[in-house]
Amino acid sequence: MNGLAFVWREALAGLRRNVTMSVAMMLTTAISLGMLGAGLLAVRTIDRTQDLYYSQLAVQVALDEPTSAGDPDCSSPVCAGLRGQLQGDPLVAGVTYESREQAYQRFLRIYAGQSILQLVRPQSLPATLRVTLEDPTRGDALVAGYSTRPGVRNVVDQRRLVEDLFTFLGSVRNAAFGLASVQALAALLLISNTIQVSAFTRRTEVGIMRLVGATRWYTQVPFLIEAVITGVVGAVLATVGLVLGKLFFIDRLLSGRLISNAIPAVGMSDVLLFVAPLLLVIGAAIATATGYVTLRLYVRN
Amino acid sequence: MLRLENVSKIYPTSARPALDDVSVDVEAGEFVFLIGPSGSGKSTLLRLLLREETPTRGNVYVANWNVARLANRKVPRLRQRMGCVFQDFRLLPNRSVGDNVAFALEVTGKSEHTIRAVVPEMLELVDLTGKADRMPAELSGGEAQRVAIARALANRPLVLLADEPTGNLDPETSDDIMLLLDRINRAGTTVLMATHDRQIVDAMRRRVVELHLGRLARDDARGVYGARR
Fold first, then answer.
1. Nearest to A212 among B79, B112, B115 (CB)
2. Which residues of chain A have a CB within 8 Å of the CB of B79?
3. How far is CA A282 from the centre of its chain?
4. ipTM above 0.90?
5. A99 close to A126: Cβ distance less than 8 angstroms
6. Alpha-carbon span A100 to A282, nearest angstrom
7. With a threshold of 0.80, does the pTM exceed it?
8. What are the pLDDT digits (tens) for A39-49?
9. Are A226 and A201 in contact (CB under 8 A)?
């Protein structure tokens, strides 16, 4: 169909005619899509981190002093009774016992070379039943159910301890999405306005085309293609931005000694295979929808 | 070919109707002058035929189309079968002469092959052979109007509507344009031309339809411009 070549040429001519506006449109779109991409990467990282942690997290049932003392294998009646109850609990996937001596050895490993070691005696540490759950979110029920049992000092849901980290990552994600939506609004308005200006400057030309019998295909599709090109170029720029951001910012941040084991790295495949195609589709779709609505509402010819 | 039945057109911003109960019938192959002073309704009548406006009352027919009731999406079809030229030429300013003519063919979905064959043929018809690569700004008024005529004829229209086609041209150039329109009419195309150029009308001795303040004042088979003004 030769009409296709025609509207394509017209669209490119339209973008060239108003270069500054076209560039502004593309950059705004790129920034909003970049923000969205960053948010999506944050979500993915949060999911990964949660998977990583929740597979290791457990509910720790710390035993009181008399029950902890001198029981290397949970053979005392109180400990064995607790273990039996926990193993029979439908919430519980597995139970392992860590004796006071084992806890002390682990403590020595973790804090090797630090002054805190001199303050701690094995007697300071409780023996623990580490309980993994069928559903990691149901730790509350276990805390409520076992805290007051005889022989129990306290019950700690480790999930609670890392929730702060997820809250932080979640707020990173929310901030990215928030900025993305504000920026997206700006991009939409800019695209809409550019199409209106472009249609207005070309109204005589479009009027002549209509008189000669041109259908809307000829007079309006070029504007839509301009919008799609904007969306696609915006998505490509956003992807380039995310790749650079990953290489020069995220990678450095996450390779820091403190955090490298706490948060899994963002992979290049996450950027290129997961986020980039999404941005491309979203960018093109939103730009097209904006263009279509603008033409319907504001451009009569 | 063209038929107006009791057509009235009232613009919301105007107290007097632009057209008031006008009925005109134009047969295929006719050459008709539509005359009258400014504001008499000539342009409104042409706009109704091209479906740039819809009548307030009455019916407008072009060939088999009931123009006033035509669905919006079918309007391009109608216009593709009508040629129109204007006082101000209305060429696409950033396209060459050849591309202006080609555009009319392009919108009707003609193949690249057909377009390459028809454009030179049309330019030859209006004596502009060899000027296909000129831009509209480089043309004289007479040349620009010839390009407009070539574009209007490219799709072999049922009817050629001309709204003051000589209004911006000097008398000599006007005569050339009239010779061209006459030749086109003799080749079989129906022509309806709005004008207030007395000399042209008197020289051609064709059918004259006169409008006055939106009403049909006269319809003579072989008329002159008239003695009243």
1. B79
2. 210-213
3. 17
4. no
5. no
6. 56
7. no
8. 888 888 877 87
9. no
Tell me how far apart the alpha carbons of residues A177 and A33 are, in angstroms, rounded to a whole number: 10
How many Å lie between the alpha carbon of B123 and the closest alpha carbon of chain A? 17
A237, A30 Cβ separation under 8 angstroms: yes
Q: In angstroms, rounded to a whole number, what is the distance separating the alpha carbons of residues A40 and A48?
A: 12
3-state DSSP: chain B helix, strand, coil percent, rounded to 5?
35, 25, 40
Does the distance separating the beta carbons of B107 and A218 come in below 8 Å? yes
Residues of B in contact with A216 (CB under 8 A): 73
3-state class (DSSP) for residue A131: strand
* B9-44 per-position pLDDT tens digit: 999 998 899 999 999 999 999 999 999 988 899 999
Residues of B in contact with A208 (CB under 8 A): 90-92
The tokens for A183 are 């920026």
CB A202 within 8 A of CB A299: no
How far apart are the two ends of chain B, measured CA to CA in Å? Answer: 31
C-alpha distances (whole Å) from B152 to each of A209, B69, B97 are: 12, 24, 13
- B107, A212: Cβ pair inside 8 Å? yes
Q: Give the type of residue at B88.
A: D
Taking the CA of residue A265 and the nearest CA in chain B, the distance in Å comes to 54
B160 contacts B152 by C-beta, under 8 angstroms: yes
